[in-house]
Structure formats: structure tokens, C-alpha cells
Specification:
Structural class: alpha/beta
Number of helices: 16
Strand content: 15-25%
Number of domains: 2
CATH topology of the largest domain: D-Maltodextrin-Binding Protein, domain 2
Order of helices and strands: HHEEEHEHEHHHEEEHEHEHEEHHEHHHH
Number of strands: 13
CATH class of the largest domain: Alpha Beta
Distance between the termini: 116 Å
Oligomer: single chain
Strand order of the largest sheet: 9-8-10-7-11-13
Helix content: 40-55%
CATH superfamily of the largest domain: Bacterial extracellular solute-binding protein, family 7
Radius of gyration: 30 Å
Length: 363
Amino acid sequence: MKKFLALALALVMVMALAACGGNTSAPAASSSAPAASSSSSAPAASSSSSAPAASGTTFEKMTWKFACSATDNTCWADMGRQFGKMVSDATGGAVTVEVYAADQLTSGNQTEGIQGVIDGTIDLSAHSNIIYSSFDKRLNVVSLPFLFDSFEDVDKKLDGDAGKAVGKVVEDMGLHLLGIAENGFRHPTNNKHAIEKMSDMQGLKIRVAGSDLLKREYDLWGASVTTANWSEVYTGLQTGTYDGQENPLPTADGGSISDVNKYVTYWTGVYDCIFFTMNGELYNSLSPELQKIVDEAGQKAAQQQRQLERQGDQEVLAKWKAAGVTVTELTPEAAAEFKQAAQACYSEFAPALTQELIDAFTK
């Protein structure tokens, strides 16, 4: 009887332990779900902190901010998106590029947009050499009068030794140059008359971008020069505060300039490039393989942007002609007159631009 009771007691204890284990298993499974979620977001979890590329290499997940001064519907912003897609594809989706057009990250301030990339608060940017010249005057060299005589000449110089020389200046600012893109030739417009020769420029009130070199060029051509924020230009032209302005055609068209200016001189007088850069410390922190991916994607995106900008240039030219805008192209004699009149810029600005850098583009 004692043996029977002992056996029965043991059986009850076993059943009780089994029942206890069954009761705790459900809560344990429930509590493990949040724990798994937490660990998957931790840096140690490779499933979310890295991603395998097609090459088999695993890259750390990163998100980079790209800023540009042009609006979201321009090829400037497209360059950031194309770059982002190429880098994302090559890294198996590990790297994401967020595009912030119109310098959203700095409330529209282009200079602060560049400063952000220098400081590292912005990872990538696309800004013109004119804005960059406020940091280093040598970068104005690209906008010397009649420095280029065609788009082919632009490519030859910017993709050659001259581009390397100006790129070195950019990189000395603590940046890594991914590519040189294009804002384009800057064409003067006005609402008075066609500019076919230099005397036609005399006395016209022309708004120019905030560059000492640009102001001096138009001063030598006889214009009455003024500067103003781009957001104020349309109203200024509409009210007669200015007679005209100068910009690449896609930029001017984006500002509806053909509504208030019916004359444009299509020339090669002044050119404006875009420096596509990455924060230098960020670039140096990348693996050699990722640096190669970034450099190749940067070059391709910049070259594609140049072609899109030129395509847009021709599309706007055709659009404006159809809308009744008078388009003037200078004769060789008229172009030579403008070129000769502004030749003084080369000597006057040589101390700031350095003769060495000027020679890189002219010899």
C-alpha cells in the first residue's frame, strides 16, 4: 500500500510539472517576439545593418542626404536620384540616397548648402562654381568670358587636365569631387531689343548672379549691372526694375522669364559648371570597394546630367522661338567684339584666380 501511494504521488508530481511547463511556454513565446524585433534592429544583427551586393560583398546599411540648389523637377535633382539608384543597385540596396532639392536642408541658402557638405551635416551636394567661388575665388575661373567656344570644348577641358586642376581646388576644401556636371552657358535676356552687337548692351539694366567676375564682365560690355535674389527677378522684370537677366535657358525657363523678356542672345559668353561633391571624411571612411562604386556612379551621373542639361537647353530654345521670343546668335565679328572688351577680366582677376589655373584652361 505504501509503495502504491508513493507511486501515485510521484505520478501526480510529474503531471504537475508537465502542466507547469505547458502554462509557461505560451508567455515565453509571446515575450520572445519583442526581443527578436529589438535584436534585429541592433547593429550586431547583420540582417538589417548590412546587405549583400551582387558581387557577394556585404555592405553596411547607410542613408546619405543629397542637396542641390535647383528644384526637384530638374536634371540636377535627377543626378542625385540616378547616382542613388546606381549605388543602391551595386550595394544590394544597402545605400540609400535621399534627394533634397532647392536646398531644403538649409532653407534655400546655397552657400550654407555647400557649408553643410564641408561640415558633414549634408553628405552630397550639387552646386555651381559661382556659389563655390564665395569659398574660394579661384573657382570663378570656369566663368571667365568666352573661356569655351562650344560644348565640345567644355567636355575636352573639364574632362581633361583643366578639370583636374579645378577639382583639386574643390577637394582642398575637405570635399571629394565625384564629377563635374553642368549648369550651362548663361544667355542674356531683356525686354527692350535684340542684342546683336556690343552697343546694344549699352545701358540695359541687367540682373546678374552674385559674382564679382560676372558683374565685371557685364560692366565691361556696357550694361548697368545689379544683383538680386532669384526669387525677386520675375517681379523686377515685370515692373521694369530690371530690363533683363542672364542665366542658362532651363533655369530662365523655370522662372518663366519668357513671359516678361522677349529677346535672348544665345551665345558662349559665360559658362557655369556644377561640382558634384561628397563630404571628404565620409568618403575616406568607406571601404575601397564602396569608394570605387561611388566614384564610378558619380562620374556616370554627372555625365548623364550634362547631356540632359543640353537636351533641356535645346528644348527651351525651340519652345521660346515658338512662343515668339526673338533669338539672336552673334556673328563671329560681334562675338569677337564682346570677347575683346571683356579680355581685361583675365588680367584683373589673375591674382584671385591664379595664372596657373587660368593657363590650365587656356593653353
